[in-house]
Design goal:
Elements: H1 4-7, H2 25-36, E1 41-45, H3 49-54, E2 66-68, H4 74-90, E3 99-105, H5 107-111, H6 114-122, E4 127-133, H7 173-178, E5 184-189, H8 193-203, E6 209-215, H9 219-222, H10 229-238, E7 245-248, E8 251-254, H11 265-268, H12 283-306
Parallel strand pairs: 1-2, 1-3, 3-4, 4-6, 5-6
Antiparallel strand pairs: 5-7, 7-8
Helix pairs in contact: 2-8, 4-6
């Protein structure tokens, strides 16, 4: 693959001048994916933060064809576009390879858009689906999603006297996608551009559906300084909350392993959505959070060991 120095010299396909918040991790992820992607590209996205900030009429930040669909059907849209392309190829009306990418947040992936995604994968359409996971419905007011971590404060899982934020652990979307027997699925984040770029390249080397789950911090929803977006992304990995790994043809593989994992409190303390966990009455929840992270990571390590990786 190309070096990072070469990638950043590529033509920008997601231009500046969009309306994203300062420090938005989602637009960083989109920019990185498009820089690393094979060309030409055709994209689709549902309603959400990304659509709102990048396509306010009469302007657009997209320098590639982009189809905006409803909240729940980005995967159905991209599969229809890919099916039309395949039909035109069979008729000899298109003779070049085109790559299809769908971008959707956790709400449009884990929740309201999951049925369309599962169906598109089962039908084996050839596309890369990128989940930009900021762990809540940020566009409509920071409501919880099934990707929201346990104990996080959101407007629909507020911390208070009775409840310490969201009660349920987040949905493991990677394992759900892997259960569909995709050829390739990977997890990464914007602080590791080289890792992200390699995974985009791998995903696009396969025919059929592939999936990349990208953690994208949201300063507004997470309650952190815009200048800390990359640092918080990095700490999510260094604390083992967000392991960098891939699943390729039945094999699990860590693509980065912290030499000395940091305690989860190093990640939590930088985010306002977890500030209540540091109150004396909630200190036991920090231990519970650490235990959850440790157990999930050990399960992943065992899968990698069984794969011989």
């Amino acid at each position: 693959m190309k070096s990072i120095q070469d990638l950043i010299k590529e033509k920008e396909l997601f231009s500046s001048g969009h309306r994203a918040c300062a420090g938005c991790g989602e637009v960083l992820a989109v920019r990185q994916v498009l820089l690393a992607s094979k060309k030409p590209i055709v994209c689709a996205m549902p309603t959400g933060c990304l659509e709102i900030v990048s396509t306010i009429f009469p302007h657009t930040a997209w320098q590639v064809p982009m189809f905006h669909s409803a909240f729940e059907n980005a995967a159905a849209t991209i599969s229809g576009m890919e099916a039309a392309y395949q039909a035109l190829r069979r008729k000899g009306k298109i003779d070049k390879k085109i790559y299809f990418i769908a971008f959707a947040g956790d709400g449009g992936t884990h929740d309201i858009g999951f049925q369309a995604l599962s169906g598109a994968i089962e039908r084996r359409h050839s596309f890369l689906y990128v989940c930009t996971d900021n762990q809540a419905y940020m566009n409509t007011g920071v409501q919880r999603s099934s990707a929201t971590p346990q104990f996080a404060h959101t407007t629909t899982s507020p911390k208070g006297e009775k409840l310490p934020g969201k009660l349920q652990p987040r949905k493991d979307i990677m394992e759900i996608i892997i259960a569909h027997e995709v050829p390739y699925a990977a997890q990464t984040t914007v602080a590791f551009f080289h890792d992200l770029a390699k995974k985009v390249e791998k995903a696009q080397s396969y025919e059929g559906p592939t999936f990349i789950n990208i953690l994208v911090p949201c300063p507004l929803g997470w309650g952190h300084l815009p200048s800390l977006t990359i640092e918080i992304s990095r700490l999510a990995v260094e604390t083992n909350f967000w392991p960098l790994y891939e699943y390729e043809n039945g094999t699990y593989r860590l693509t980065y392993k912290p030499s000395q994992p940091k305690p989860i409190v190093d990640w939590l303390k930088l985010q306002g959505r977890f500030a209540h966990l540091f109150e004396e009455k909630n200190k036991h929840l920090l231990e519970e959070f650490q235990k959850y992270v440790d157990e999930k990571y050990q399960k992943l390590l065992k899968k990698c060991e069984l794969s011989g990786k």
